[in-house]
Amino acid sequence: MAIRKDANTLTTAEKQEFVQAVHTLKQSGLYDQFVLRHANTPMTAIHRSPAFLPWHRRFILDFERELQRVSGNPNLGLPYWNWPNGGPGASMWNDDLLGGDGNSITGIVETGPFRSGQWSVINSDGNATGPLRRRFGQSGASTLPTQSEILQVLGVTPYDSFPWNISSSPSFRNQLEGWTGPNLHNRGHVWVGGSMLPMTSPNDPVFFMHHCMVDKLWHEWQLRFPNQGYLPVSGGPFGQNLTDAMAGTPNGPVGSRPIDMLDSTALGIEYDQLLPGTPQPTPPGQNVTQLNVNALPVSGQVSQPGEIDLFEFELDQRRNIILETSGNSDTVLTLYGPDDFTREIAVNDDGGSNFNSRISMTLSAGTYRASVRLYNPSRTGEYQIQLSSETGTPTPSIPLLTVDNSPFAAEISTDRESDVYQINITTAGRFQIETQGDTDVFLSVYGPDSQSTLIATDDDSGIGLNSRLILELNPGGYFAAVRHFSAFGRGAYQIRVVRLS
């Protein structure tokens, strides 16, 4: 497994391997593609917002895997810039790794493997604009973050809070990003200055070491607060919710949603050393409580602000179930599955008695996971959760959309409703799945023969605010899910499937 190390501790061979791999990516044009990916993604989609940390975790993970590929070494780990020990005299700035500060007048880097004549930078259009520039401590930040400042931020909970921007407080994400508190991430960019200031900042290879340090601190925060989940789960700006696709993130071996980037261990991310007070990673699933159908209620407690409790249950056959909380706490209940704990299938806030949550739906056989949090992330409280199965109630079938039939009329009638349809394809071909009407809907397609394998999503490619997907489909059963763009939106719509070829 690749281990990410403090850049100041790399051996001579490790430095050479890293530099050579970076230059190989540059020569192939792939390095510049990473610069453009960062530069041309909307600023507020990946900065000043909750997705800041998962977006950059995916970004540097993709870069690390490219380094491994071109070097032929699957154990090559991206080094991190340890800010407290990374000032201008640190070994990472020596000529055998990053080179040092820029010229005192021009800012042009004249030493090391990324010096003028050996390395060039591009603008957001992909055009070369000259050599790399740095101005250590001269662009508005004269010092780097200290360990005491880092430890201060590592104690902040919850992950984020409304209004999900630079005004969010309390917010670990906002403090780590640097819009409040001691200013960590932002200060690093400004301290280096020069090419590290604009959205094309990946032009400077130290960008990736810098964000590796940011990711390390998020990793440590997750270990310190294992029950503190990503926020917002839902109800935030589109692209920032737990299961939203993140802007500017391509399809790849790992997903493109915040939920896909939360488990460092599952992603193969490991750091060489952890700060005092950070526990070692624990085995996945250790803090999950099992639920049994029609058993007595299970007691739960949100003992820290922002904590998220996890529960699992297994169904041996298709059932109508009720999952609900009870007590005096204002809970929010989210359900994932089947057999895929990254697929959100239902969310409820006040569907139960008082301010409790209640989900009543038909589920196929499989394993499911439920999460419970409090509506107010700054509060704590006790609750009970119970899973029951309705008896004597017919199991509803999923509506079938017949290819080339008339549009099927439906309506989003409740908050966070998601309508599911089945599409049976008997002969391979090119198909168009689209919605019609005046309601702003979001379309997702799963399959083949699976309600958890996502194929494609769309928002506004149809007429007006409608969704449209054109897909090459092989024979099999597919499922289309339709929801409102807003978690609280409602309205009528129609959906149809037509064969194009």
Comma- or semicolon-separated keywords:
globular, alpha+beta, 20 strands, 501 residues, five-stranded mixed β-sheet, Jelly Rolls, di-copper center containing domain from catechol oxidase, 18% helix
Structure description:
- Helix content is 18%, strand content 25%.
- The protein is globular.
- It contains eight helices and 20 strands.
- Strands 3-5-10-7-8 form a five-stranded mixed beta sheet, with no helix packed on it. It has a five-stranded mixed beta sheet with strand order 12-14-19-16-17, with no helix packed on it.
- It folds into three domains: 7-261, Orthogonal Bundle (di-copper center containing domain from catechol oxidase), CATH 1.10.1280; 288-389, Jelly Rolls; 400-499, Jelly Rolls (Sandwich).
- The protein has 501 residues and is α+β, with helices and mostly antiparallel strands.
- Strand 16 (441-446) and strand 17 (454-458) form a beta hairpin.
Radius of gyration equals 25 Å
Number of domains: 3
Mean pLDDT: 91
CATH fold field value of the largest domain: di-copper center containing domain from catechol oxidase
CATH class of the largest domain: Mainly Alpha
Element order: H for helix, E for strand: HHHHEEHHHHEEEEEEEEEEEEEEEEEE
Taken as a percent bin, the fraction of beta residues is: 15-25%
The major β-sheet equals: 5 strands, mixed
CATH architecture of the largest domain, by name, is: Orthogonal Bundle
Which regions are unreliable across 5 or more consecutive residues at pLDDT < 50?
392-396
Helical proportion, percent range: 10-25%
The number of distinct β-strands equals 20
Supply the CATH superfamily name of the largest domain: Di-copper center containing domain from catechol oxidase
Large-scale geometry: globular
N-to-C CA distance: 46 Å
Summing up helix and strand content along with how strands pair, one would put the structural category as: alpha+beta
